[in-house]
Amino acid sequence: MDILAIESSCDETAAAVVRDGREIISSVVATQIEEHRLYGGVVPEIASRRHCESICGVVSEALEKAGMAAKDVDAIAVSFAPGLVGALLVGVNFAKGLAFSLGKPLIPVHHIRGHIAANYLAHKELEPPYMCLVVSGSHSHIVKVKSHTEFETLGRTIDDAAGEAFDKAARAMGFPYPGGVFIDSAAKLGDSSKYKLPRPHTPNPYDFSFSGLKTAVLNLIHNTEQRGEEIDVNSLSACFQETVCEMLTEKFISAAVENNYKTIAVAGGVAANSGLRSALSKAADEHGMTLFAPPLSLCGDNAAMIGCQGYYEFTAGNIAKTNLNAYATMPLDEVRW
Question: Minimal CA–CA distance to 116: which of 106, 131, 138, 101?
């Protein structure tokens, strides 16, 4: 089964053709990072306009690279929630029009489910059940993956997501957007013991809170400047990254141990962070767990992961009608359309 997938939840316009949920036939991503970098973050209105400008070309290129015409695919999958609603609407409306005109099934895909599914494209042996840590610019979740389409969220961020905290801390340190990759690089040159940062407490032991940590970085920089001293950006990056990665790893591994999971996975944009991958790998080895992580090319937003999850949604009978809407927020385990 060949699925044409479309993703437009934030600042990447993406399209892909995925076969039987596991094989990427083609994948195209048009990013807007350079433009949003001028403003220090994603500007929703600009993102929506750029999606409108790019989507036809991106879909056409994905089909061309796959050696197919639109009529050759078996279904259309699209990311419909969560994300920037204006951006999502571009992809959803394009997919609806294409599916209707071709007489093809329209498959709604939850964006976070797509991130989890990215691991299936890289690891053919991975099958549910397992536990997954989803970490990105907008999401930080600990999820029980019961089947390809059944999920239970054990914990989530109660304020800022990990990726959002990375970007805001990086901006305060003088790094451009998106800041996570710059902190990752700087951290390798710094001393993670030079600065002391807090670890916020949450009532639910599996929830995350990064807002206080981000504020602590801002205050540290401000107070240091007021004393006329210079901040050691590399060491602050190392300290910040180590703190975030340890918080994510400790809670995730604790949840896996307490729920008797030996197979674990990580997904999302922050899954590309070298510190997090190292911390999770070490912890998995110590607890006799098998860790799956997507390649860096599948950590960020892409349409291949939407096509992968779309296949499993289709086999479960999750087909949308032409009144499919886009939603800025929607719980992972309460998907509706």
Answer: 131
